[in-house]
Design goal:
68 residues, mainly alpha
Length: 68
Amino acid sequence: MTPQFNYVVCSIEESNNLDTMTIDELQSSLLVHKQRMTFSIAQEQVMQTVVDEKGGRGRGRGRSRGSF
């Protein structure tokens, strides 16, 4: 298991009775976590793209180097 899941495993151990938990339940918990992380990363990338587009150099109003 990769290190990115270490804290998830600890959380599952603390919140569930591992003696009664099935492999399918464990696998689905890990899958849900992975999907949430993937969605979160995708959202961050979209937000970064929006910020990058708004902050374009030389666009819109701002300080001018020309003299009036």
